[in-house]
Amino acid sequence: EVEQQIRVKRELSQLIMETELLRQDKDTADVTQNFYLTRKIKDLQVFTGHLQELLGEQRSLQQRLMKPLCQTSLPIEAHLHRNVVDLIQMVVDFINNLESHMTTLGTLPSLSHNMAQLNHGLAQQMTLAGGVEQLSQQVLRLRDLHHRRDPSPSR
What we know:
InterPro entries: HAUS2, HAUS2_metazoa. This is HAUS augmin-like complex subunit 2. Helix content is about 85%, strand content about 0%. It is an all-alpha fold.
């Protein structure tokens, strides 16, 4: 009986190991299938092609990066210098706030949905306020009735 239990435990552990291997195969099947591998290999080949081009043009890229973007300065009349400085400050502020502006623009399509939810919440709030008002009136009526029946203070 002990030998049979040991054999059954071995078979069980073997089955557990096989199921674990099958689970791993299932989880990694999309990585090991030829369709995905060929696409990844093509992407890697394109990327390495770009890198090889960059390495080939490294000298010319370094020279281009070392050159100033503009060979001459823009002639601006002296009385406009202040305006140019203000304009540059406005551009810098705009660029700094650009992300928040883009986020705001992204929320505009959902604005009507949010307004509908807000209106629905307001209607529920008004309904609850009406119920609270009715309950408070009932409490006041009961308090008045109680004071009329028992004129002596019970404090």
